[in-house]
């Protein structure tokens, strides 16, 4: 039986409008991903929101990344540069296509891919870069895209955590060759499970659409490419259309929650709080912090004490350079990632549901302050 938290790390937020949209889609018979009005409507509206021409709805952010890598023809013998600190899905996109993941260490402030490290890692085998907009703060896409163009590399943006995040008003997902989004239950907008690829490249759009749907050919059951069944269902898309209509309100709430957390935690020693660089819009998918020695307790001790208070948290991601199956892959390159290693040991994110109340933020912040004081006294 799962533990019940007073304050879970995240709860999906939806209401009667989403429920009604799903029921309406079911009444129209849109139970698969092969027909109906909701999927193309969701694809068109989400692509337009991102500033892109095309959107292709899929089953998850993970399958979006997989299709993006496959559509570029990346495979055995190729290398893909990936943010070291991120969910394993980014590496799986390379791995399941036969390519080798090369981790790129993190920036100390944003925890995103450090673009200053890219060129030293590029070899003749390198075919693409997958930067991840971690926790909702955009990567330095100007630098990344400039380096990619110089070396003839593709850029696949992992936007699973960055719906609506911008650089100088330009949306994440619109900088690279493709942007891959997740609509998992804890994401900024959700379809329960689901994902989307956005692109401005018509050839890539056509190829991804083909691969998504078993690569049916002409005649129908003649297959020139190894496709997948990665189709989103119509009723999921109907849910997503309603969520997308509320995205500005959701983002305003995310940013307000982050502001309240930052105000409450700013005077507690030993905490590194999330940043927002000038001309960047951080959407704070999760409110993430790191804990250093000035706090008086380790990250794990803090999480343990918060758990005792009924407050759910999560650690940062285990970096790619420490993942056993990647290290065992033929052609693996042992790249040092000291920043990603350090934040894996010191980072956590706090409850970040859209419906988090002021009282809950105060309770969480007071618990952190109390834990800090108690460890200072005991030492």
List keywords for this structure.
379 residues; alpha/beta; Aspartate Aminotransferase, domain 2; Aspartate Aminotransferase, domain 1; 2 domains; seven-stranded mixed sheet; globular
Helices and strands, with pairings:
Blueprint: H1 16-27, H2 38-50, E1 54-58, H3 61-71, E2 79-83, H4 89-95, E3 100-104, H5 118-121, E4 126-130, H6 141-151, E5 154-158, E6 166-167, E7 170-171, E8 178-182, E9 195-199, H7 202-212, H8 234-245, H9 247-265, E10 271-272, E11 280-281, E12 287-291, H10 299-308, E13 314-315, H11 324-327, H12 338-346, E14 347-350, H13 358-378
Parallel strand pairs: 2-3, 2-4, 4-5, 5-8
Antiparallel strand pairs: 1-9, 6-7, 6-11, 8-9, 10-12, 12-14, 13-14
Percent of residues in helices comes to 25-40%
Question: CATH topology of the largest domain, anyone?
Answer: Aspartate Aminotransferase, domain 2
Strand content: 5-15%
Give the rounded overall mean pLDDT: 96
Name the overall outline: globular
Order of helices and strands: HHEHEHEHEHEEEEEHHHEEEHEHHEH
Low-confidence stretches: none
